């Protein structure tokens, strides 16, 4: 009786260990078999290598060994295209950084039609980006960046549609130009600004000369206006300190009026002669 007691205890311990191991195996199988799929994901199930269907969101049951689940994310993905060097239509070498925004609209095609839709889209996007840049000149690429990006997106979307993928947008982040071209464009912009400045100065001189001519006409018709202008000038000069002001006499004012009248008369005669 005493000899059978250790054997019974050993059997109980062995049975307990086996039960624990079996329980762990069952929990592991259940953990693998039960999948909770969020709203933004879908599971493509292949049973014995054959397409079974698209499942989710919610709870999805997977048969171990028999089923192979492939998770597909339906959210918009941002794929960065590495710096692409290309020649524009006018043979200018540029380096363009861009990003492709895409999303999966058909999970079954994304799994069954292409090996890896992300890498395939990156490769295709880089090739299309270089092709489109080669079809436009540099000015169009710089000034119509959004139109060029839309054209790239439409071409990529046309090629990836059979894969169950939708390209929503393409963003051109940066366009790098050669240093020599950047310096040439800066010199051109500076020359254009100088030209505009000279034109504005010339126009200002012309307008000022016209105003001086009208002022001379007014002073020639009325000597009092010339005296008032003289007094106004003296007031402006009097604001400065340590200055000695010598006010001209009325005779000098009359002489200035006569001089203004003479200048105005000569200008009128000159304009009349040129008209004839």
Structural commentary:
It is a single chain. The chain is of the alpha+beta class. It contains eight helices and eight strands; from the N terminus they run H-E-E-E-E-E-E-E-H-H-H-H-E-H-H-H. It has helices spanning about 5-35, 105-110, 115-135, 140-145, 145-160, 180-220, 225-240, 250-275; strands at about 35, 40-45, 50-55, 60, 65-75, 75-85, 95-105, 165-175. The strands form three sheets. Strands 3-2-5 form a three-stranded antiparallel sheet. About 15% of the residues are buried.
Question: Key terms for this structure?
Answer:
276 residues, three-stranded antiparallel β-sheet
Provide a short characterization of the protein structure.
The protein has 276 residues and is α+β, with helices and mostly antiparallel strands. It contains eight helices and eight strands; from the N terminus they run H-E-E-E-E-E-E-E-H-H-H-H-E-H-H-H. The longest helix is centred in the C-terminal third of the chain and has 43 residues.
């Amino acid at each position: 009786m005493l000899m059978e007691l250790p054997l019974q205890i050993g059997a109980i311990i062995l049975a307990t260990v086996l039960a624990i191991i079996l329980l762990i195996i069952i929990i592991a199988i259940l953990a693998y078999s039960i999948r909770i799929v969020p709203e933004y994901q879908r599971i493509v199930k292949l049973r014995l290598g054959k397409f079974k269907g698209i499942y989710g969101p919610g709870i999805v049951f997977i048969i171990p060994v028999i089923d192979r689940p492939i998770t597909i994310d339906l959210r918009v993905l941002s794929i960065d295209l590495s710096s692409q060097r290309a020649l524009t239509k006018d043979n200018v070498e540029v380096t363009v950084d861009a990003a492709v925004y895409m999303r999966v609209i058909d999970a079954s095609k994304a799994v069954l039609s292409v090996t890896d839709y992300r890498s395939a889209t990156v490769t295709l996007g880089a090739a299309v980006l270089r092709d489109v840049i080669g079809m436009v000149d540099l000015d169009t690429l710089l000034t119509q960046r959004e139109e060029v990006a839309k054209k790239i997106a439409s071409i990529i979307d046309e090629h990836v549609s059979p894969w169950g993928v939708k390209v929503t947008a393409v963003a051109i982040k940066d366009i790098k130009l050669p240093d020599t071209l950047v310096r040439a464009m800066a010199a051109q912009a500076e020359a254009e600004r100088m030209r505009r400045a000279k034109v504005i100065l010339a126009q200002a001189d012309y307008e000022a000369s016209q105003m001086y001519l009208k002022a001379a006409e007014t002073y020639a018709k009325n000597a009092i206006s010339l005296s008032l202008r003289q007094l106004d000038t003296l007031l402006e000069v009097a604001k400065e300190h340590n200055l000695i002001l010598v006010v001209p006499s009325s005779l000098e004012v009359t002489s200035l009026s006569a001089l203004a009248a003479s200048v105005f008369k000569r200008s009128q005669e000159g304009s009349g002669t040129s008209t004839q």
